[in-house]
Amino acid sequence: MDVWDANIIRYNRITKAPADIFYQVESNVFHRVDLPLSNAPEGGVQQVLIQGEQDAFRVYTDTNQPPVITSSPGGALHTLTPSTVLDKTATIWIESLAPSTGLVAHVYSNYALGVPLCTGAVTIASARVIAEPINYFPWNPAGLPKGCQANYVIRLDPPDIYDDYITWKSINNKVFVYSPMTGTNTLVTAGQTTGLSGLTADIMGCQLPTLFNIQVFEPKTVNVVVWIVRDNFGNNAPLIAGEVANRIAEANGRLLYAAITLNLVAIVEVDNTAWQIVDYISGIPSQRMGEFNAVPNPSNGIKVFFVNTIGNNTTGLRSSNSIAISTSANQSTLAHEVGHACGLVDIYENLRNSQNVITASVTGHVESNRMNPLDWAAGYYPENLQQAELILRLLMYGKKNETKGYIPHGNVFGLNTSGADVSRKVGLDGMNRQPQHQPQQP
Q1: Side-chain half-sphere of 441: how many Cα atoms within 13 Å?
Q2: Does residue 142 sit within a domain?
């Protein structure tokens, strides 16, 4: 028996459609295998055999028609028609339904000989590709400013494919694969041309569809004036002036992938004990925020007030013309509030009442109709990834979470403050990337 090179066959959740439309998914679901028949004598019956886990593989002789056989531990046979066998070669296509290994062989049967003859075989291995366009910050960002670099990563199941067999490719010249060119993660550089680009990979000769869509932006700078609110005697400050730069840097780390840079213009220390506590009850206008709104803005950007406490255990609060950040804020809080200033809204995975009982929740796994098509890309999310878990990754997730920070391309389905599971404006396509606070009368 001759054994040729092993092949990888792409697998993803898209293929788990009803059986009668499997052959309608995009053509690169299938891996082409040419079985040489040169060792077979003339006459007799030409057959293809597929062996492996039950129903792990499907064999097609035409990708526009349903499969002809599926794998089984003992092997399944299909008789090849004359139109399939050309120039001593049988061309078939194999689809994988799960990560698995198997064997494809050509079998020649001539009953006069009494014993079937195997003229050649191909060992096959399929691996599940896992690519998560909406990932944990800072991996796989949806947006990049011109000239910026970012890391992109995929996973394989099983993971035992050599890095040299995985080659990264950019969709166009708006982004470039910087280094390394091979392996499960790479560093990508945005070029000097704005617009939509993307990233894909070739795995052992299988060209995958677009794994990551990447929007290249013109960078924007947003000026920031900071007020540090102390008590009437100049004490009990929520932070010292030297810490402000660190807070700005933390926010910029997340806003970088919306091509926004906060520029600290000035720090104002104000002594007003009453201003150290910001009243806040959901749905009721805050008197204190109204007072902050009325403070003149000496720049053409945004106003940020660092205070001691915000009502309802809130870490950050944004009104129409100011932002308040409390001492309980974490690394994601300021960037989240700037997201609001840019026009984005909160999104939740569940809501609780005053007795801490869950009153509404998001259920089910991630699906293409629950996010923007650019964020779905090829649909290579883990099969068990829940929509609720995905929401926790987003910068606009409305609860305290230090690891949140991802800004997707567009809307994502999740809960609003009323508990309705609806499309929420949390992505790049809904952002005003040049926000500006104007003074208002309280």
Answers
A1: 0
A2: no
